[in-house]
Structure formats: C-alpha cells, structure tokens
Amino acid sequence: MKHRVPGSWLGLFWLGLVLAVSGCTEEKALALQSAALQYRDQAVRALGLTAHGLRAATAMPARTPEQLADKLNTLEQPLDAATLEFLLTGETELARTADIATQPLDQLRDRVIAFSAIFDNLPHGSYLAQDEVRRAIPIALRMNQSLLNVAAQIDAGTLRIADNPRRIEIIEDTNAARGLPPGEKRDKALRRAAQAVAELSAREQQMQREASANLLQAAEIGNAMIGLARNYDQVALKDVLNGLNDALALAGRISPESQSIKRSLARLQGATRAWEEDPVLKPLLAQPITRNE
Amino acid sequence: MDNDAEMLRHMGNQITDLQVKYRALPLGDQMLVHPALKQLLADYARYQAKLLMIGIITIADDLTEIKQLQQSVDAAATTMDLLAGIGKLISFIVVRV
Question: What are the residue ranges spanned by the domains of chain A?
Fold first, then answer.
C-alpha cells in the first residue's frame, strides 16, 4: 500500500479537495474490504464443494469391519507386516491420487485468498487508494472468469462430479442380488437397488448444482466488486453499500436448480464480456498483472 | 454432451468397473493390483486437471478407442486380466495428459 505525504500546505489543500470530491472515505474502503472478504469466503466454500465432488468421482467405499474380516479370511499365509501396512494405508493412497485433479481448484482458492488480502490495508490508505483498487480489477476479472469457467465445466460435464462410492455399492449390491435364487429375498434386494439408483441420481445432481450455485454466487459478488472498483473514485459510500447489497441479493437468488444456474451463468458470462469491452477498464486489462494473483 | 464430457464419462465408468473387480479380489491379489490401480487413478486425475485448466479436444477416434477398451474391462475375469485392463487404460490416458 502506498502512502504519499504532500510536500506543502498547498498539497494538503489539494488533497482535501480531492478527498471531498472523490468521496474516498475510510468507510467506503471498509465496505469494499468487507465485500472482498465475502467474495473470499464464498469462493473458498464453492471451490471446496467442487473439489469434494471431484474427489468423490473416483473414491471407493470405506471398508467395513465385516468386509475386512472376509479379506483376512482369503489370506493364504500368516498375516505379515507388509500386508498389515497395505491394510492400513492402501485405501488412503488410492484416495490421495485425487489431489492431482483438485490442484487447479486449490490454486484458484489460494489466488482468491491472496486477492482479498489486497484490501486489508485499504481503510488506512491514502487518497490514492483508488489506484490500489483499480489495480485489483484485472485480478478480480481473471478470477471471476476462472470461477465461471469451473461452473461452465460442471454444467458441460467436463468436470466430473459423482458419488463413486455409492455407485460401487449399488453395483455390488445389485450383482449380489442377481446371484440370489428367484424369490422374495431377491425381489426385495433388487427393489432396494432400484430405489438406491433413484436416490443416487438425485444426490449427484444435488452435488453438481450445489457446487455450481456456490461458484456463481461468488462470481456475482466478484462482478459487483469489479463494478464498484471501476467507479470507486466517483461513488459515495451509500452507492458502495447499495451496490454490495444488490449483489448479495442477486447472489441469494441463485438457487441450486438447473434453470437458475443456466440463467445466472449466461448472465455473468455476459457481464464478464461487457467488462472486457468497457472503455474504462480496457487499458487496465491490457496492462500486465504484477501482483501475485 | 460434448466429446470431452463423453470421454470423461467413459473413463470414469471404466474406472468404477475396475474398482468393483479390484474390491472383489482376495487380499493377496489386491496387493498385487494396487500399484497399477493407483497409477491409473493418478493418470485419470491428471487428465481431469488438464481438462480443467486448458481443455482438451477429444476427437471421434478417441471415443471409438475408449469404447473398445470397455471390452477388456468387462472381460477381466482373472487378476492378470484385470492388470491387463488397467494397463490398457493407463496407456490410453497417459499419452493424452
């Protein structure tokens, strides 16, 4: 954060004049800082939900004590240290491979956290805070594009969210039921499997839509922040607060339903394109980003 | 559904089928297959990450090839068959990440 001290009383006079005209108050900066924190919290939550869904897409069901006993029963020799080690760590090692898939999401989460820190010192800043705010715009826009890209990929199916442990259980249970002799027990088991399929379908849709809706809610706040940052030197505190309230209201209306998600995604993608063409922002966006985004 | 999404769905389903077969193995055979399954899951995770970061254009021939691989997954009746099926899927994915 830059601190500039005017070198003369004339300078101070001009500073006062600038502050009065621009409405560059500590309260305004605090409002923007608060928005940055809300953006961070929402984006971190959304990316966490998405990463959870990605991990679940290749996860396996936890082994029950009964299943473990069955496996131990298949041992052809006495239990040794290597086999015990495998029992203790084998499943965890398989689950950890999903860390590779979530790396881009983890990196985006870290960038969002770093971005919100830009605003930490803003309320104590100088009348040049508006410069600091404007420099954050390209970073915010790029992050918002990334959040929207993740939401779009969930919608397109190129980011696979699935409840794989439940899928595996249904396959195993169904095949076990099919192995039963015809009769009431077999019929009941197959009906349970059918019910489980219906529940799984609803569950996976819910996982996908919850992640998408949360990503879009974060992008909605980000979009409002870009607008406020663009006009930071021209708007009053009241405008900043109203703008943020409007953004939170819009974000709150994004629900985990297919149509709401599609509409919000299209609207926010359109807003992002509009920012890219904005005559005020274009020169800023053309500059290389020097911050650690 | 676009080609990339369809590719991911085929890969995911084949991995699920292989995991079901892996879970059914005796403990000793699970230990034998575990490193290959771990490699497969890691390569799939790299594929998903690449798709997430830069996107991949899956061509129709790729889809034809992954569908053919399903046959070796379905036919895997022994531990060696299962290892071969996992190996084929690894070979398919690794050249695309």
Answer: 24-58+101-164+197-286, 60-96
